[in-house]
Amino acid sequence: MNLWHVKNENDLAATQNKETFLFFQNLLHNSLKLTANNSVAYLINNFVKILVYKIKKNLSQEYLNFLKIYATANNISLNNLLLAVSFPDIFSYMLSKTGSKMYLNIPHVFLGCSTLLLPTENGVLHCRNLDYFGGKLWTSNHAVMLLNFPNMIKSINITTMGLPVVGITSLNEAGISLSVHMLFTKEVNINGSLVTDLAFQVITKATNISDVLKIVKDKPTVSGWAFIVFSHKENKGVLIEFNGKKTCIKELNSLPFIYNNFYMTREQQSSELYPSYIWIQNNFYRNNHLKRLLSDKQTFSLKDAIKIISDTSDYHHGNKDPFGHTVANSFTVTSAIFDVNNERLSLGENHSPAGVGINKIYDLSKIFNGELDEIDKINIIQDEKKRAFYNAVVSVMDILYTNQDYEKCINILDKLGENLNDSYFTLLLYAILLIKKEDFIRAKEKLYKALEKTYLDSYRLGMIKLLVAAIEDFTGKKKIATELYADILQNHRFVDLNILTLKLYTKGVDKNFFKKVVPNFFLSHFLII
């Protein structure tokens, strides 16, 4: 674990971690290249520059100054920095504006942040899993960023070296803890506040809940977001949910409290956007599994909390597959618990999922004084086979979001040997990589193996069947394809799945269809543009 103590502008220099910054700066562009041809990616990229310009005009002076200092210290342009920190807002904004006009997706979601507020004997644990891109790049450089600028409340921000995210997973010296969740909404607003700006203001200014509410009042955001805020000195918390039109606030009067990536305030629920059914399923599974994990306890220890946020069981199939809709997953780059009343901070210090393995316990008071003092560690025992799966998938994703070397990705998965066949997900991923190389025969073999995993729920089985049907259709096996299409429509009744099934059945499948099948893991396992 690195301590990134920022006392002045020189401390923001992170030239030794430039690779990390460049990854996030180029993340949107590389995502577009995965999901669109180069000319379309170029056009969208130019549109994004206009969005960044509009976002910059609405930044608070304090946050704009902070970004300018960072940009100067690292000899980068302010616009490129904004592109890196505003990627989620821009992505969500574009998704809402384009909707089904841009793409249909047959998705599989693994990432989805989790926040828990758990009562203890003498306080509340603020538990947080951050799921995001970056993989080994992020988790090789876990960092505690102590922001200690003049005229700001001192704050601890959990990040990766070189990426100045303040307020996303944070605690300030006044005892205000904050975690931020991305949501999807139909109500977006390019003239709204940037979520990282509001988070920055909360964690550097607020001393109590009243201060927090003054900062966020009447501050619609560019896209959909939620803040879970707890004031440990006041022993009270609030949920704040944003969209492009309004801000809604809910007092948290009952603990434990669980938050995943869906709106909970009644006023915001009507605006919620569901990119696909899998987004609903993923959040439902994680939320209900967390309720199950909490059901037999009234109070929790730090060790209890670490076990809960490091859980890797799927609500539907348990541990029958290394992958699924799990609390901790191959995108969990940060796993943190603020135990303020006992002056403890727990941090998972592993590759994704960060909390599976060694979790180190630090003295919070010493961190605020500029020392990273490890006082204990708790080991969440790793299943070596599962860890090999996670490492392989994280490595593949890091490659896909940089140079898109499909052959290299296949070679990584090959190292799993026969274990590759033990997960529907790695079989599906392998098949998609083979499709990108136009090796349809081997791709189909992998998909049929994946269909043997009868423990999967109806939606996930239907997704795999649809890709098999498309290959059978394309390779001239129309009868088999038609039977599969009929099976999906009869036995796997999900709107997005059925719309695409009918489209392929009526129009047929050509080579262009497979050019548009890409391994994209933010919203989809394979995406159909």
UniProtKB/TrEMBL annotation:
Pfam families: AAT. It comes from the Bacteria. InterPro entries: Peptidase_C45_hydrolase (IPR005079). Residues 121-346 form the Peptidase C45 hydrolase domain. The lineage of its organism: Bacteria, Pseudomonadati, Deferribacterota, Deferribacteres, Deferribacterales. This is Peptidase C45 hydrolase domain-containing protein.
